[in-house]
Every structure is written in structure tokens, then in C-alpha cells.
């Protein structure tokens, strides 16, 4: 049988370490999201996209229109994850855990995330969250994704990553990544253009923001994708907590 293993997993730790993590942390604090430019190269993007038609590496397929999620579809990987996906999950988590712990401290949330992904997933599995959550999404003309949060259970890691696998303007048009931030004072929307191979780290649920009268307050974050005007768009989603 043809291998379903995409190339380039061994290059992931270096690609992650070369990112400007000080700037990423500042952007997450200010906006609830941060772009990691060119985290994957075109060959890695193509190899992951080529996995989508296969059935042997996924645990389920979701057609969004059947559930009121929008239009389009996505597939959740099964364990064991493809090495490239697994490498991304393991390399990104320890960079994001200190940010997640700092946010929890600021918000008064009594939850400390361990240093390693293995230790965090052990907590998830002990709590009954054993199903893997990394996924690939596919959009065609007219498809879109409603604003939502990827929670999946009681244990939630507050940051996740989306990596665009298709080239805007060549493979598709429209289909911009959208985030909204809602607090007691206001609601803000952001449109976040990405290039092929760019990764976007963003808030899953809520984050601390400065209050207008001083102190901190919680802002609820949601994300989605605007309507695709043409072509085909694939995205890899890397979520760190597993699902029930």
C-alpha cells in the first residue's frame, strides 16, 4: 500500500524554533492571535493536502451543512497521527504552554499546563477525552465556516493553530480567516490574510484583555472562515486537547 506519511517531519522542530517567539507572545497578548510565516514549505503543504482524499488515516468526516456549521467539510485524523502532524503538535505545544499558563494566572483560572504534550494528553485521556482532534478542512466555491470555538470537553488548551495549505489567488479566492472578540464593553472583528504555509496561532475560547478602567477582563473569542468565492482551500488544524 502507498505510504500515507508526508515528508518533512524532521524539519518541523527547526522551523518552529526559528520563529520570533517574543513577537508571537506580544501579538497573542495584544490581539489574541499571531502569524508564524512560512512554517511549512510548499512540499509539506502539498503532501498534507494529498492526504485528504484518503480514508485510512481519519477517524471521522464531518459535513458542515448537516450540523449548521456552515458549508464545506473536514476530517479528524485517527491515532497514530501522520508524523508531520504529530511533529507540529509536539513542537508547538511547549512554546505555547508558558503563554497559556500566564493567561490562566492573569484570569485567576486554577489550571496549570505541563511542559510536555504527552503529560497534557495523559490528563485529557484520564478525563475521558481520548479522540484525536487534529484535522484537515476542505472548502470549495460557496463554502464557509460559521464562527465557533473548538472546545470538545472539560479540558481545553487555550491556544490552537491553523496552517493554510493552499495558495490564495492561485488555488482559491475569498475564504479569509475571521476572528471576533467579545467583551462586556465591545465587539471587535479581525480578518487575517495568510499565505500558503503560514500558521496562525489563536485563542480557542477566552483571553485576558485590559479593562477601560484598569485591571483585566475576559474576552470571548470565536473564529471562522468567510465564503469562498472560487477554487479549493485546504487547512490543517492543530488542536492540543483531545475530544470526548
Structure summarized in a few sentences:
The protein has a single domain (9-238), classed as Sandwich (Jelly Rolls), CATH 2.60.120. It is 25% helix and 33% strand. The chain has helices spanning 12-17, 21-31, 42-51, 83-107, 117-126, and strands at 33-36, 58-63, 70-71, 73-77, 135-140, 144-148, 159-164, 172-174, 177-182, 187-192, 199-203, 206-210, 216-225, 228-238.
Stretches where pLDDT is under 50 for at least 5 consecutive residues are: 1-6
Overall structural class, as computed from helix and strand content, comes to: alpha+beta
Name the helix and strand elements from N-terminus to C-terminus, one letter apiece. HHEHEEEHHEEEEEEEEEE
How many angstroms separate the termini? 31 Å
Got a strand count?
14
Q: How many H/I helices?
A: 5
Architecture blueprint of SSEs:
Blueprint: H1 12-17, H2 21-31, E1 33-36, H3 42-51, E2 58-63, E3 70-71, E4 73-77, H4 83-107, H5 117-126, E5 135-140, E6 144-148, E7 159-164, E8 172-174, E9 177-182, E10 187-192, E11 199-203, E12 206-210, E13 216-225, E14 228-238
Antiparallel strand pairs: 1-11, 2-4, 3-6, 4-5, 5-14, 6-13, 7-11, 7-14, 8-14, 9-10, 9-13, 12-13
Structural features, described:
This protein is an alpha+beta fold and 244 residues long. The chain has a single domain, classed as Sandwich (Jelly Rolls). 25% of the residues lie in helices and 33% in strands. The protein has 5 helices and 14 strands. The strands form 2 sheets. Strands 1, 2, 4, 5, 7, 8, 11 and 14 form an 8-stranded antiparallel beta sheet that branches. It starts with 11 loop residues before the first helix and ends in a 6-residue tail after the last strand.
Amino acid at each position: 500500500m502507498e505510504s500515507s506519511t508526508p515528508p518533512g517531519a524532521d524539519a518541523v522542530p527547526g522551523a518552529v524554533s526559528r520563529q520570533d517567539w517574543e513577537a508571537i507572545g506580544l501579538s497573542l497578548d495584544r490581539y489574541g492571535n499571531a502569524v508564524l510565516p512560512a512554517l511549512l514549505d510548499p512540499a509539506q503543504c502539498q503532501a498534507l493536502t494529498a492526504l485528504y482524499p484518503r480514508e485510512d488515516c481519519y477517524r471521522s468526516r464531518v459535513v458542515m451543512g448537516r450540523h449548521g456549521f456552515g458549508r464545506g467539510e473536514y476530517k479528524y485524523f485517527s491515532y497514530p497521527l501522520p508524523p508531520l502532524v504529530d511533529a507540529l503538535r509536539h513542537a508547538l505545544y511547549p512554546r505555547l504552554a508558558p503563554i497559556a499558563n500566564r493567561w490562566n494566572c492573569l484570569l485567576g483560572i486554577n489550571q496549570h499546563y505541563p511542559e510536555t504534550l504527552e503529560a497534557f494528553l495523559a490528563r485529557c485521556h484520564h478525563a475521558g477525552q481520548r479522540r484525536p482532534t487534529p484535522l484537515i478542512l476542505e472548502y470549495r466555491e460557496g463554502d464557509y465556516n460559521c464562527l465557533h470555538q473548538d472546545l470538545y470537553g472539560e479540558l481545553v488548551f487555550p491556544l490552537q493553530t491553523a496552517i493554510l495549505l493552499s495558495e490564495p489567488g492561485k488555488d482559491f479566492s475569498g475564504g479569509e480567516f475571521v476572528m471576533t472578540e467579545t467583551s462586556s464593553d465591545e465587539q471587535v472583528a479581525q480578518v487575517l490574510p495568510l499565505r500558503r504555509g503560514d500558521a496562525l496561532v489563536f485563542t480557542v475560547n477566552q483571553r485576558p484583555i485590559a479593562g477601560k478602567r484598569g485591571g483585566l477582563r475576559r474576552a470571548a473569542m470565536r473564529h471562522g472562515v468567510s465564503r469562498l468565492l472560487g477554487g479549493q482551500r485546504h487547512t490543517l488544524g492543530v488542536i492540543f486537547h483531545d475530544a470526548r
